[in-house]
Amino acid sequence: MYLDINGEQFRVLKTEPQGAWLVSCDAPGPPRFVDQRELDAYPRAPAPEPCTAEQGEAPQTAAEQVRMALIQPLLDNGDCVSDPAIRRQLAAEAAQEHGTTSRRVLRLYYQYIATGAVMKHKSRERRPPEYENYYKRAIQTFYYSAKRPSLRDTYDLMLHQFFTAPDGHLADKRPTWPAFRHYFYDHTYHRRSERTIARDGLTNYQRTARPLTGSAMAWKDHIGAYQMDATTADIYLVSRLDHTKVVGRPYVYLAVDTATQLIAGLYVGYEAGEEAVMACLANAAMDKVDYCRGYGIDIDAADWPSKGLPSEVITDQGRDFLGGRMKELCLCYGVTCEALPPFRPDRKGLVEKMFDLMQGRYKPILRGRGVIEADAQERWAVDYRAQASLDLTQFTQILIHCILYLNGRRVLDSLQMSPEMFQQGVAPTAAGLWQYYAAAGKSALLELNPQEVYYMSLPRKTCKLTRKGISHDHLLYVNGGFLTSEDGQRQIGQKVSIAYDGQSVGEIYLVLDGSYVPFRLAPQYAAYDGAARAESELYWKADRRHKRDFQKLEDEGRVELIQKLTAIRDEARPEADRRQSGADIKAHRTQERRKHQ
C-alpha cells in the first residue's frame, strides 16, 4: 500500500494497532512511524513508476546479487523496520563481513524496502535530438579543425552560421548549449580518432593516440638490430678535478637491441653529436666485463652478454646519427642504417622506454644530489645546481648498475615464452633472451676487434709535433720513445693528425700511416689525468683566473723592485760624482801643464 503525504509518496512497511511504519519512495531513508489517526487522513496513491516492489521477481545481474547479499540479514529480520538499534547492529556486521561500510549497507536497505530494487535502472530510450543535423555539421566543420576551437566556441559558430538572421538577430527557436554539449559527449565525438587527427595532426595521432597492435620485440627475429637515441640526463654533475665546480648535465646515448630489449651500448659524457654516437657504438662492440672493471664493478659475461658491432642501426633522422662518420662506419663494416621518420619516437619505443626506466631507477635515490625535478622552471624553485655532488665517474657507475638490473633482473612481462624456451629454462629477462638467441644462431652481430672500432670512433684534429711533444687543448703530450726514433725525428716540426677521446684527456693518439701511436700527458700536467675534456677546460680556465688575480701583485712587485733599485742607485751617485769631478780637475791640470811646457 502507498500513501500520498504532501505530494510525496510513501510505502507502508509494517502496520501496528497504534499506526504504521512508512518509508519514502521519492527519497528513501530510515522508516518512520505514523499515528493511526494521521494515517487515516492521508489519501492512498498508486505504486510509483518504475517501482518493482510489488512485481514478480526478475533475473538479477551479478551486481544486484552482490548488493542483495549485503542487505539479506536485515531483510530476514522483521524488527529492523521498527528497531534502529537492531538495524544498525546487523548493518555493521554485514559491512565487516563484506569489507564495506555500514552506511552503504543501510542505504541499499532503505532503497530496497522503498522501491524493491537495489539498483536504479535508467531508461535507455532516447529520442533523436531536434537539431541533430546542425550538430553534426557544426562539429565536423568547426570543431574538427586545425584552429582547435573549444566546444563552446563551436556552439557559438553554429549559432552564427545556422541560426542568425541577415539582420544579425538570433532566431527565437534555437538549440541550447546544454543540449549541444550533451549530444557531443553522448555520441562520443570527443573520443573519435578524427578529433585528434583534425585538431592535432596525423603525426600526433600516430604517436600518441593510434591503436597499438603487436609487439615491438616482434619487429626483429634476431639480435644485432640496435635502436639508438640520446637524451640529456636530469641531473647536474660536478668536476672530478674540483667538486666545487658544476660542469653541467651529461648526455646519455643508448643502443638497445630490438629483439631482446637488452641495452647493448652506453655513452655518458659532456660531448654530444657524432663523437657520442661513435663512442656508444664502440661501447656496444667491446667486452662489457673489461668496461665495467674500469669503473670498479666486477661482473660475469652473462650479466651483460652483448659484444660486437650491430649489423643494423635504427634511429631517427637526427644530424648526430646521419653524419659523415656514421656513413663511413656503415661503408667500412657493412652496417645498415635505417632512418625513421622525424618526430616519431614511438617507432623506436624500446630505447625511449629504457631512458624512462633508467631515470625512474636512480632519480628517487639521488634526490637532493642535483636531480632536476618538474618544478625546475617555476618561480622560487630549488637551485638544483647547488645540490650537485656526483661527478661523471660516479654517475656512470650508477647507470651501469641500472643497466645491469634492467638487462639481467627485470622480468619481461610482454615476452611470450615458447615451449622450447620452457624446456631450456630460459630466464624471462633481456640477458636470458639474448643468450637464447645467440645459442640458436639468431645473431647478426659483426665480430671484429673492439679496439679498432674505438680508434675509428675518436675525433680527429691537426696539431704540430715539436721536440717537446704535442700541444692539444692547452695540455702537453709526450712519447719519448717515438720522438727519439727515426720516424719521430722526421715528423718533428710537421703538421700531424691526432685522435683524442673527449671522455679522458690522459692520452691522445698520433695517426701515422694507419697506426695509432699513444702520447701520454706530460708529468707537469698529471693533475688533469682521468678528467673529461669539458672538466679539463673548466679547470684550466679556473687556473687562469686564479693566476690573473695574482697578476696585480706581480705588477706591484715589479714597480716596487724598480723603486728600490733606483733609490739605491741614487744614493750611490753623489760619491760617484765627487770622484768623477776630482778626476776631471786632475786631467785639466795635467793638460794645462803640458801646454806650458
Write the layout of secondary structure elements.
Elements: E1 2-5, E2 8-16, E3 19-24, E4 32-35, H1 36-41, H2 62-76, H3 84-98, H4 102-115, H5 132-143, H6 151-162, H7 177-186, H8 193-200, H9 202-209, E5 225-232, E6 237-238, E7 246-248, E8 251-257, E9 263-269, H10 274-285, H11 288-293, E10 312-315, H12 324-333, E11 336-339, H13 349-362, H14 392-408, H15 419-424, H16 430-439, H17 450-457, E12 460-466, E13 469-472, E14 475-478, H18 480-483, H19 486-491, E15 495-501, E16 504-512, E17 515-521, H20 533-549, H21 551-596
Parallel strand pairs: 5-10, 10-11
Antiparallel strand pairs: 1-2, 2-3, 3-4, 5-8, 6-7, 8-9, 12-13, 12-15, 13-14, 14-17, 15-16, 16-17
Helix pairs in contact: 2-3, 2-4, 3-4, 5-6, 8-9, 10-17, 13-14
Which tags fit this structure?
Nucleotidyltransferase, domain 5; 5-stranded mixed beta sheet; elongated; 5 domains; alpha+beta; 597 residues
Would you mind describing this structure in some detail?
The protein has 597 residues and is an alpha+beta fold. It folds into 5 domains: 2-115, no CATH class; 132-209; 218-451, Ribonuclease H-like superfamily/Ribonuclease H (Nucleotidyltransferase, domain 5, 2-Layer Sandwich), CATH 3.30.420; 460-544, no CATH class; 550-597. The chain contains 21 helices and 17 strands. It has helices at residues 36-41, 62-76, 84-98, 102-115, 132-143, 151-162, 177-186, 193-200, 202-209, 274-285, 288-293, 324-333, 349-362, 392-408, 419-424, 430-439, 450-457, 480-483, 486-491, 533-549, 551-596; strands at residues 2-5, 8-16, 19-24, 32-35, 225-232, 237-238, 246-248, 251-257, 263-269, 312-315, 336-339, 460-466, 469-472, 475-478, 495-501, 504-512, 515-521. The strands form 4 sheets. Strands 12-13-14-17-16-15 form a 6-stranded antiparallel β-barrel. A hairpin with a 2-residue loop joins strand 1 (2-5) and strand 2 (8-16). Helix 5 (132-143) packs across helix 6 and helix 13 (349-362) packs across helix 14. It starts with a strand and ends with a helix. Residues 52-56 have low confidence and may be disordered.
